[in-house]
Design brief:
Mean pLDDT: 77
Radius of gyration: 22 Å
Strand content: 5-15%
Low-confidence stretches: 128-137
Number of helices: 14
Number of domains: 3
């Protein structure tokens, strides 16, 4: 999961190439550029990944508490994966602009592609509504301050976006989920960043060190698939240590029956599709996972998860809403 966010660091680190890595400075730059809820603790969490990627170098090799120097490639060009991320986001923003113009002639919506890109990213990061089920929204009309009726959409008020912008974002993301699998995957990745930064913040530098906990954590289907290795080697390497540490300190790691069904349906769809897409399809193509193993997981993932300490449980939707999900 964390490796997938590294391309977003590329343009920011290049601005400070040759300088000492200052987590506060980098965190501020990330907040300014991406509007993420990012702090210095989060930057320090990424240090091992940045060092492994060759973007920072320890000033005292092998020392536990050392400073780092930013050393990006001298060609001045962003990493290929960064260029891909930027190109994909710009492509989707262009689609969003075209979609909104076809949907509504509202003149209050920004006209530049860059502005469409900004409002879409902000909506994805701060509105907890990314899935085919949770993307449902209620549209209606209400009078504004001048008494004029305006179209509104009931979405949690967690952004500075106007009602018209929220409405268009919701309509466009729903359209992308239904019509464009490639764009939907990119949007899902961006949406996951907001949750991921919150999760990482909860685990870095606690005020009081936690050796034991009675926390109960529920894995959703995508994370459980990563843990089982059907989403690729790197995904498992990023997920397995987190789950193992939770279990080590006494947390109960579980998965809902609905998520088990989701795993089965997703994997069976990949196996039946002659031209599958997604993490599992890519892992199969790279030979990081055997088709026979994917088939085994698709039949019954519960015992395989139980073997790594994740217990299955069956509860109502209302009970599930109150449980923390990783």
């Amino acid at each position: 999961m964390l490796e997938g966010l590294l391309p977003f660091f590329d343009p920011i680190l290049r601005r400070h190439n040759g300088s000492k890595l200052d987590p506060d400075v980098i965190a501020a730059a990330i907040r300014d550029m991406y509007k993420w809820n990012f702090n210095s603790d989060l930057v320090e969490t990424f240090v091992p990944y940045l060092e492994r990627h060759g973007w920072i170098v320890a000033d005292i090799a092998g020392a536990k508490d050392t400073t780092y120097t930013i050393q990006m490639a001298d060609n001045g060009e962003p990493d290929a994966s960064t260029q891909t991320v930027e190109a994909e986001l710009r492509r989707i923003a262009t689609q969003f602009k075209e979609f909104s113009e076809a949907l509504s002639p509202l003149t209050t919506i920004p006209r530049d592609v860059e502005e469409f890109e900004d409002i879409l990213v902000e909506w994805l990061l701060y509105v907890e509504a990314f899935s085919e089920k949770s993307i449902e929204f209620k549209a209606g009309v209400k009078p504004d301050a001048s008494g004029k009726l305006r179209q509104v959409v009931e979405i949690p008020n967690t952004t500075s976006l106007r009602d018209e912008e929220k409405f268009l974002c919701a309509r466009f993301v729903k359209h992308a989920i239904e019509e464009n699998q490639g764009s939907a995957e990119v949007l899902a990745r961006i949406a996951a960043i907001g949750l991921l930064t919150e999760v990482v913040q909860d685990f870095v530098k606690p005020v009081t060190s936690v050796d034991k906990t009675d926390l109960v954590v529920y894995l959703d289907a995508p994370v459980a698939m990563e843990l089982l290795g059907v989403s690729g080697k790197l995904a498992r390497e990023n997920t397995a240590p987190v789950v193992a540490e939770l279990i080590r300190i006494g947390a109960s790691v579980r998965i809902f029956g609905q998520s088990l069904d989701e795993i089965k349906n997703n994997l069976q769809a990949v196996l039946k599709n002659p031209r599958p897409t997604g993490p599992t399809a890519h892992a199969l193509l790279r030979r990081e996972v055997l088709r026979e193993y994917v088939n085994e997981v698709s039949r019954n993932p519960a015992p395989l998860l139980d073997a790594v300490g994740v217990k299955a449980t069956y509860r109502t939707r209302e009970q599930a809403i109150r449980a923390p999900v990783l």
